[in-house]
Amino acid sequence: MDESKLKTKSKPKNLILIGMMGSGKSSIGIQLAETLKADFIDTDQLIETKYDLIVNLIEQKGEEFFRNIESQILQDLNQEKFSQNRIIATGGGTVLRAENHKILKQLGLIIWLKAEPATILNRLIKQKNENRPLLKSFSEAEKLNKIKNILQMRESLYAELADLVIDTDKIKNQNDITENIIKYFINGSLQK
């Protein structure tokens, strides 16, 4: 890859990953950051470092409180003096607030990592992370239904915001996903 193209590219300033939990935002984001020699920021990790586990915040203070923090984190990222050359993985519900849409668009190129509900559930089960609010105290069938319902609410928002959609059910290899994103970033399309 010709990295000089990355340095002279004025837009976008950052790559923003959106999508459901389990869609691969963190793992793809880390790989993109390593490949592009960029900083990786996970908004959920920022929240948990500064406040508490997201599941605890939602249980103790409510989802509205959590969404306020999430919006503030985005605003802070957008106001940083040198807010470029970053890969930013957002929380799955970041798209729920209209005020976040403008900020996301200002931050950079938005990539939706799309996945089917069954794929999301399988990935989440493999992660064995019970700190995710979605996975607390549900049977597998209930978790799948919950994922379907959440995705149904968010899918049009993801689609509306995305500059690029990567279907991770069709492109399963993480290296191929990263390569497609970089091609789009450099060329403005997936063409060679």
Question: What is this structure's SSE topology?
Answer:
Layout: H1 3-8, E1 14-18, H2 25-36, E2 39-42, H3 43-50, H4 54-61, H5 63-79, E3 86-89, H6 98-107, E4 109-114, H7 117-127, H8 140-161, E5 164-167, H9 174-187
Parallel strand pairs: 1-3, 1-4, 2-3, 4-5
Helix pairs in contact: 2-9, 3-5, 4-5, 5-6, 7-8
Explain how this protein is built.
Helices cover 56% and strands 12% of the residues. The protein is globular and about 45 Å long. It has helices at residues 3-8, 25-36, 43-50, 54-61, 63-79, 98-107, 117-127, 140-161, 174-187; strands spanning 14-18, 39-42, 86-89, 109-114, 164-167. With 192 residues, it is an alpha/beta fold. The protein has a single domain (13-187), classed as P-loop containing nucleotide triphosphate hydrolases (Rossmann fold). The chain has a five-stranded parallel β-sheet with strand order 2-3-1-4-5, with helices on both faces. Helix 5 (63-79) packs parallel to helix 6 (98-107). It contains nine helices and five strands; from the N terminus they run H-E-H-E-H-H-H-E-H-E-H-H-E-H.
CATH H-level homologous superfamily name: P-loop containing nucleotide triphosphate hydrolases
**CATH-defined topology:** Rossmann fold
Determine Rg (CA atoms, Å). 16 Å
Structure classification: alpha/beta
Q: Give average pLDDT, whole number.
A: 84
Counting DSSP H or I runs of 4 or more residues, the number of helices is 9
Overall spatial form? globular
Kindly report the spatial arrangement of strands forming the biggest sheet.
2-3-1-4-5
Question: Would you identify the CATH architecture?
Answer: 3-Layer(aba) Sandwich
- Top CATH class: Alpha Beta
Helix content: 55-70%
Taken together, the total number of domains comes to 1
What is the H/E order? HEHEHHHEHEHHEH
Find the count of extended strands (DSSP E, 2+ residues): 5
Q: Report low-confidence residues grouped into runs of 5 or more.
A: 1-11
Give the termini separation.
11 Å
* Beta-strand share of residues: 5-15%
